[in-house]
Amino acid sequence: MSATAATTAPATTAQAVAFAAHGPADVLAVTDVPLxxxxxxxxxxRVKAIGVNPIDGKIRSGVMAAIFPVDLPHIPGQDLAGVxxxxxxxxxxxxxxxxxxxxxxxxxxxxxxAGADRLVAKPxxxxxxxxxALPTAADAAYRxxxxxxxxxxxxxxxxAAAGGVGGLAVQFARAWGAAVVGTAGEANHAYLRELGAExxxxxxxxxxxxxxxxxxxxxxxxxxxxxxxxxxxVALTGDPARxxxxxxxxxxxxxxxxxxxxxxxxxxLLRALASAxxxxxxxxxxxxxxxxLPLADAAEAQRLVETGHVRGKVVLTVA
Length: 319
Hints:
Strand content: 25-35%
Number of domains: 2
CATH class of the largest domain: Alpha Beta
Number of helices: 9
Structural class: alpha/beta
Radius of gyration: 21 Å
Helix content: 25-40%
Largest sheet: 7 strands, mixed
CATH superfamily of the largest domain: Medium-chain alcohol dehydrogenases, catalytic domain
Oligomer: single chain
CATH topology of the largest domain: Quinone Oxidoreductase, Chain A, domain 1
């Protein structure tokens, strides 16, 4: 057989991580799946990095089954960064080889599909791990601030300000010209000062400590922690319309506050990603990575996120 005839056939399968039944993180397993083919308006991305989010574990465990039912086996994930590998019909915004980050479907995989309009160009030099970690966190942070109308001159209270979403909320708000007071454990206070926020210890008496830290008053509040902080947050803002929660629908309802799930209302994703990219280009983007693990270690990544005590983001990478 000639060398030409012996060339390797194109791959028809790829590796992914999936679960065949709801349960603990151990149900996640590496599996071979058919190479996905992009449909109209989609691109296929050769993945470099995947952000791991709390929602991934909640869907896997089954606790979200009534709200987000999935067919089994299911590949988790929605955040991604990688290289455009194939174009679906009608896609003109991207070319094969473009470096992108954004949201897709079933992203715990070597190759994933994404809507062409759910991606932005990755700035040159932005590490793949950081790009993959950004989409959900940036979208949530930007959306929460936008929905309470944060503007230059405001003072914003951010609960859980040292987390992945909280840190980006601080940075976006500061970029918009707002002052920020952030609740966090004392171990994270120096970090918050580096981001430009005034830190306040959470726990009993936190509202009084906010009043001391912000004698000028608080204009808006963003709840990223839950656990009953919205009553005092509304008292601080003086208006339930200037408070929002992305984690506690019950507390939001009890206090007349907007609960923002990201599945209704205005779509902020592209603006959020563009804003994060602008911060990076300006040299002002900080996103700590709590752990960077290979795709095969997805179970350990989800376990880390489920502790609720990581600063920054957990990321999976694909060689």
